[in-house]
Design goal:
Length: 184
């Protein structure tokens, strides 16, 4: 999972004093609102790295024809309890086979990390009061799941669980080695 530091992000929104610009400048790594994108997509240069912010109230099918031209889709969580963006991410990855970055933005908290990873997000912009180190730990809370997901499509009964357990044991041994000799 990639963690986005807003001060060092390579993607920038096209905003002015009064909010999103009606006619954003043509440049690489621009993160446009859906309205901005719809206004300029016909004249936007092909091959220019472009991203779109999609509210969680929008049917993800509306951006499906444009996905080959996009490198980033930022999905919004207006509140951490509103999970519609999980479904949007899942559809982007499984139905539309979107290979670009799917970023979680808005009210994103540490507790959401395992489900973000399982539904197709590969980048996250945490809420300002959340710590990246806590989010990284949260990604390892659950070593496996019974249900299939984007990371492991097969449910537990259909896969070799002994291989999963061996990989889990190897990860734990590797984590324990980092503290050898430190008295911890």
């Amino acid at each position: 999972m990639k963690f986005i530091d807003t001060h060092h992000d390579t993607w920038h929104q096209a905003v002015g004093e009064d909010g999103p610009m009606q006619q954003p400048p043509v440049r690489a790594n621009l993160l446009l609102t859906l309205e901005q994108w719809h206004a300029v997509r016909e004249s936007w240069p092909a091959g220019l790295p472009t991203g779109v912010i999609v509210p969680n109230t929008v049917d993800i099918e509306t951006v499906a024809p444009d996905l080959p031209r996009l490198q980033l889709v930022a999905l919004q969580f207006p509140k951490w309890i509103d999970g519609r963006a999980y479904s949007q991410a899942r559809l982007l990855r499984s139905r539309y086979r979107f290979g670009g970055e799917v970023r979680a933005t808005g009210d994103v908290v540490v507790d959401m990390m395992p489900l973000l990873a399982r539904t197709g997000f590969d980048a996250v912009q945490l809420r300002h009061d959340q710590r990246q180190s806590s989010a990284e730990r949260a990604l390892n809370f659950f070593p496996g799941h019974y249900q299939g997901d984007l990371l492991q499509p097969q449910p537990a009964f259909a896969r070799d669980l002994s291989a999963d357990l061996a990989a889990q044991a190897a990860r734990k041994a590797q984590e324990a080695e980092q503290f050898v000799g430190q008295g911890i």
